[in-house]
Amino acid sequence: MTKKKLECPFCKSLNCVLLEKVNSHLNKKDYDLNKCNKCGLQFFTPPVFEDIYLNEGFLGQIDYYNEIHKGRTEASMWSQKIFDEIRENRIEIKNKKIIDIGGADGVNFDVLVKDFGINPEDYYILEGDERSIMACKKRGIKNIIPRYLSEDLKVKEKFDIVIMSGIIEHFTDLKVCMNAIFKMCNEGALIFIVTPNRNRWFLKWKVGLDVPPHHFYRFDKKFFRDNFRDELIEISTFERKKPYIDSAKSISDKLKLHWLLLYPFIPILRMANYFNSEELYCLLKVRSEVKK
Ligand SMILES: [Zn+2]
């Protein structure tokens, strides 16, 4: 049996190399972390989707999904970044057709209606997880596309605003999913992407959920600059606002030191981290309509 050559899931180049072997703490399975030398993407193999979202008891992440399935009242910090950008740049989203890709419990819907005054009819959510769909219905979301993104997904509507808040790293086939998204867009549509920054200074200390079968890709600024040259409006990094104690505790777990010993150093580490922050924010503009 010949082993299939490693192929980049984005640019399809065969010029890919193994970076390291990773045992996921989420499901105890082994994965390869690879890098494509052509487009610069880092990707895990095998990219096998596991429906961890339906399982409330998913190895140590019980509370996380339980909360989402109940229906959160506050948008995630990834979505909040998108909302901040829309406000600061005075981007007009009223009377625009909006799609929230992998929008989970639909918490963004509440913010968009209450704070931005969008027409509820203009909001669409693409979500395949049954419990999340129930939460969306409870909120009164009418336009629910009860699916995960895939090649054969047919959506009648075309959109002006696409929200991809902490979702791009979850796709199992990046090229197929990005093509599907571009096909849903009107000319001039804006695509808001927030995803972890693989060059974050804290990466070694805080892997968290940034491994398969949760995340399959690791991005950096250069990836978006090189591969979305025509569409790129902005690419930047940002830091989530959270208490110093959380950072001290996550580092202390790794170093096996008491968190109190680390606490005084956290402000300094935060400053160092400023230049290589945890998250990427990317805004793309669709230049021409992709024909179906
Ligand atoms: Zn590639």
Please identify which CATH superfamily of the largest domain we are dealing with.
Vaccinia Virus protein VP39
Strand percentage lies at 15-25%
Give the % helix. 25-40%
Order of strands, main sheet, comes to 6-5-4-7-8-11-10
**CATH fold-level label of the largest domain:** Rossmann fold
* CATH first level of the largest domain: Alpha Beta
N→C terminal distance: 38 Å
Total E-strand runs: 11
What do you see in this structure?
This protein has 292 residues and is α/β, with parallel strands linked by helices. The protein has two domains: 197 residues, Vaccinia Virus protein VP39 (Rossmann fold); 37 residues, no CATH class. It has nine helices and eleven strands. It has a seven-stranded mixed beta sheet, with helices on both faces. A hairpin with a 5-residue loop joins strand 2 and strand 3. The model has no long low-confidence stretch (mean pLDDT 87). The structure holds zinc ion. The site of zinc ion has 8 residues, from loops.
Quick recap:
With 292 residues, the chain is α/β, with parallel strands linked by helices. It folds into 2 domains: 50-238 and 278-285, 3-Layer(aba) Sandwich (Rossmann fold), CATH 3.40.50; 240-276, no CATH class.
